[in-house]
Amino acid sequence: MEFDELLFSDELRGRIWRGKALRLARPTIPTGFAALDGYLPGGGWPLGGLIEVFVEHYGIGELTLLIPALAALTRGDAHQPSARKWVAWIAPPFVPYAPALQQRGVGVDGLLLVQPSTSRRECLWTVEQVIRSGSSSGVLAWLSAADHVALRRLQLAAEEQNCWIVLFRPVAARRERSPAALRIGLEHEAGATLVRIDQCRGAHPGVVDITGSLAGPERGFDDDGCAARELDSKLAARPERDASRGAPG
């Protein structure tokens, strides 16, 4: 008897475990961009796993790419809608500009800005503690360096709290090992806006052209990505810092 015939025979039917059939769907939050949602498993950004975004320099549109998810989380309608939590920004190299964020639908009273010291170890410790505290539905962190052990600790914390974790890392870190569920880069090439997927749990690496998804003033992008960079500069470049607050209302 051939293997396939044996596998589906009456004698063995129902007695063989097949991993694909029993794979549990991971929770996600829509990216807000149809082409990217169509590529990613579950139709959006993974929750409970690290997302690494590699950038050569800040302000190329990486914040704009995250705005729909940020808006959904700060409205409390994407994840744990009955228990609103912070979306923490840890060690950003700029001060978020509240009016620009509000214009894009982000609830700024749900954002928490954390500035640890310049020590790499303290920054990683802060990120892990914020995740493990359970106080945040999302964490955005800007890391200059992180080894595999540190990333593994953050991955485990993300799994425990099932929250949205985005780590901004330098392009050189692409060559390093990582337990992340998703590793991407944002690029502008020949009039197109591309998300380059280096690693994706549940899907193959590839390049997603999101230009069509982004077209139109409501997305803040034009055909060559210039509006994305302009919007990122509006979101980021302000010298004043908001005072620390206790908890989102």
Describe this structure in words.
With 249 residues, the protein is of the alpha/beta class. The chain has one domain: P-loop containing nucleotide triphosphate hydrolases (Rossmann fold). 31% of the residues lie in helices and 22% in strands. It has nine helices and ten strands. The chain has helices spanning 3-7, 19-22, 34-39, 62-75, 98-103, 120-133, 148-161, 211-214, 226-236, and strands at residues 28-29, 45-46, 49-55, 86-90, 111-114, 136-142, 164-170, 182-189, 192-200, 206-209. Strand 9 (192-200) and strand 10 (206-209) form a beta hairpin. The longest helix is centred in the N-terminal third of the chain and has 14 residues, at 62-75.
How are the SSEs placed, and which strands pair?
Blueprint: H1 3-7, H2 19-22, E1 28-29, H3 34-39, E2 45-46, E3 49-55, H4 62-75, E4 86-90, H5 98-103, E5 111-114, H6 120-133, E6 136-142, H7 148-161, E7 164-170, E8 182-189, E9 192-200, E10 206-209, H8 211-214, H9 226-236
Parallel strand pairs: 3-7, 3-8, 4-5, 4-6, 6-7
Antiparallel strand pairs: 1-2, 8-9, 9-10
